[in-house]
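REQUEST
  id: r-88c1
  op: predict_structure
  target: EF-hand domain-containing protein
  payload:
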Amino acid sequence: MGGILGKSESPPSPRASVPETKLEAKISEAMQRRETEGSSIKSFDSIVLKFPKIDENLRKCKVIFQEYDEDSNGAIDPQELKHAFNKLKINFTDEEISDLFEACDINEDMGIEFSEFIVLLCLVYLLKDDPSALHAKSQMGLPNLEVTFETLVDAFVFLDKNKDGYVSRNEMVQAINETTSGERSSGRIAMRRFEEMDWDKNGMVNFKEFLFAFTHWVGIEDNEDEEGEDREFP
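RESPONSE
  id: r-88c1
  status: 200
  body:
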């Protein structure tokens, strides 16, 4: 298959001012393609209501994570990730795998922890257009995994009102207001949620940032860190 991280065209203004890696450009391009299909989600509340089921299904990935954490040290290193991709028949190049690893290793400790692994798998789901991807996911033994990832994609599509592959502050406010019309707190809720997503503080949220915030919202990290709510988000 051809590389997914090939040279991409510069995004149109005003996005041109946002620094972007090749992988991030491909994420936004893949999301824009998906956004042409629209979203089945009608309110932010409906996303929140899905949190428990999403949490339950994502935690089932723990079995996969432990299988590929070959030295059982609680993190998947670059070599272990390559082994995992080989076993799952995900045909990314070494460069593509390295780019994904770097993108998801948020604390830059050369290890993919469980919540980071979930984000990585979901990015693979979004980026992988080769038919073997479906075969790979079916081998995971988690029939709900693809449905869960699609729900996360659908949630982002709902938030991205102008379908440019990024969520802005205004789009987040609009999404919250559609649900909590008339509530004075809705603006504060939107800003808090947006700030939790926009951890590089560039004013725009891409799908990767959204995924990291989402794993935090549903509590994926809680079983990794007993402090739960007290854990500081990157």
